[in-house]
Design goal:
The complex is a heterodimer of chains A (321) and B (129). Chain A is mainly alpha-helical and 321 residues long. Chain A is built from 8 helices and 10 strands. Chain A folds into 2 domains: 100 residues, no CATH class; 198 residues, no CATH class. Chain B folds into 2 domains: 64 residues, Winged helix-like DNA-binding domain superfamily/Winged helix DNA-binding domain (Arc Repressor Mutant, subunit A, Orthogonal Bundle); 40 residues. In chain B, strands 2-4-3 form a 3-stranded antiparallel sheet. Classes of the chains: A mainly alpha (321), B mainly alpha (129).
């Protein structure tokens, strides 16, 4: 577990150290700066300071992880949560140091007047099908109730299932409800990425395709009930595989790294991480932090998405308690 | 290469007017042809980062001028605007005045006379062709 935890800590440190390369050239630590600023002496000094802070914190954390190696659960949590906290702190300190060099974003806005077909891949049927599949799976469970094992796995570790629950209607259908909610969130985000997202047409479709793949996967593979005809096996591996393919496709599409992206004002970014602009009609937009996208938290739909995401673990807890 | 639309949020001209002017220029120049479909109001508003009503107002003005047929959800269809419309006497009368005022404005802002002449010649050449 110690080696596993230290590996995670190292991976987080590498990601944290490399992350400034993933943002657009006119952004540094989520602050609008002149393009090429990061290659000037002040820009290089800020980057150096960020990496020194991050790696120094990581080294101290590695010592703490080694000292706590007799408590495996604490070791892993310390490595992952601590590693993320160290690099987040380095980011926030560097952001504050970068703000004096901020410039006003370009007031020029450009958009294409072409109108390519703007719909989620596969259309509305592909968007609604996962929820119908989940309903069909729930029906199958009701019809073949006796064939569900008296105890079935609900959590997997490195060496296979490590937690089980007894077969009860609450356990089975509570999980269906949780994954229906998760699937619905993914499908809504896919729809919103295409129709309420701000990015290139291709990037939006790739983003939506990945979210829809997750929505389909949550419907077909979770909860992974062995012996049921409509349940896909190897759910956790499928999830990892789909996510990996999606991330590669996102990087290749240039999401968040292309120069000349939509200029947003610094004052609309809380801590450089959370976007709040009631005058911006976009619900989903490029992160300033690097690869990926974020929600415009000035829109009520964003809070509905967060509430739904928070409801998933609550429903799962209710199902297996 | 599809035509692009650019607006400056800090310009004195309101955003909806800039959108009208930019699209009308593409229509007159032929960059947008009859049968072309412009993006739906929501898509263009999101891409530009302006309120939906800003784009809706611009499309409505262009529709009233006879350039666009507004399709719900699908966007705005560019119309063949070949039939000569009755010339608005007020527009014709104010044309020369507006042109003189514009030239005076840019000269006051420091744009040189050769530059202004060059632009006017380019416009005249475009009209002749």
């Amino acid at each position: 577990m110690l080696l596993f935890s230290l590996t995670h800590l190292l991976l987080i440190a590498l990601a944290g150290s490399l992350h400034p390369r993933w943002s657009r050239p006119d952004l540094l630590f989520a602050v609008t700066v002149p393009a090429g600023f990061r290659h000037t002496p002040p820009g290089r000094a800020l980057l150096r300071r960020y990496r020194v802070l991050g790696w120094a914190g990581t080294l101290l954390l590695a010592v703490a992880v080694i000292l706590s190696s007799n408590q495996p659960q604490t070791t892993f949590a310390l490595a992952v949560a601590g590693g993320a906290a160290v690099w987040l702190a380095a980011f926030l300190l560097s952001r504050r140091a970068t703000l004096p060099s901020a410039v006003a974003p370009d007031s020029l806005r450009t958009a294409s007047l072409a109108a390519p077909p703007d719909d989620v891949p596969g259309g509305i049927l592909a968007l609604l099908a996962p929820l119908l599949i989940l309903a069909a799976r729930a029906l199958e469970c009701a019809l073949r109730w006796d064939e569900i094992p008296a105890r079935f796995p609900i959590h997997w570790g490195l060496h296979g299932p490590d937690r089980w629950t007894a077969k009860t209607p609450q356990a089975v259908y509570g999980q269906f409800a949780a994954f229906a909610l998760l699937s619905a969130v993914m499908l809504f985000l896919a729809w919103a990425t295409v129709h309420r997202g701000r990015a290139g047409h291709r990037s939006r479709r790739i983003g939506a395709a990945g979210l829809m793949a997750l929505g389909w996967l949550f419907a077909l593979a979770f909860p992974p009930l062995e012996g049921m005809a409509l349940s896909l096996p190897y759910a956790p591996f499928l999830l990892l595989g789909v996510t990996a393919v999606w991330l590669v496709a996102m990087v290749r599409s240039g999401w968040g790294t292309a120069p000349g992206g939509h200029p947003t004002a610094n004052e609309h970014w809380r801590l450089g991480l959370f976007y709040w602009n009631p005058d911006d009609p976009a619900l989903i937009l490029e992160k300033r932090f690097g690869l990926g996208w974020t929600l415009n938290f000035a829109h009520p739909a964003s809070w509905a998405v967060l509430a739904a995401v928070a409801g998933v673990p609550l429903l799962l807890h209710f199902a297996v308690s | 290469m599809p035509p692009l639309l650019s607006i400056d949020l800090h310009a004195p001209l309101p955003a909806y007017r800039q959108i009208v002017d930019a699209i009308r220029t593409h229509l007159v120049n032929g960059a947008l042809q009859p049968g072309d479909l412009l993006p739906p109001v929501r898509r263009l508003a999101i891409d530009l980062g302006v309120h939906f009503n800003t784009v809706a107002d611009a499309y409505r003005i262009l529709a009233e001028e006879g350039w666009l047929d507004l399709k719900r959800r699908r966007g705005a269809l560019v119309l063949a605007r070949t039939a000569p419309r009755p010339i608005d006497p007020a527009v014709a009368a104010s044309f020369a005045r507006r042109l003189r005022e514009l030239v005076a404005e840019v000269r006051a802002a420091g744009v040189t006379r050769p530059r202004i002449l060059r632009e006017l010649r380019l416009i005249a050449k475009g009209l002749e062709s």
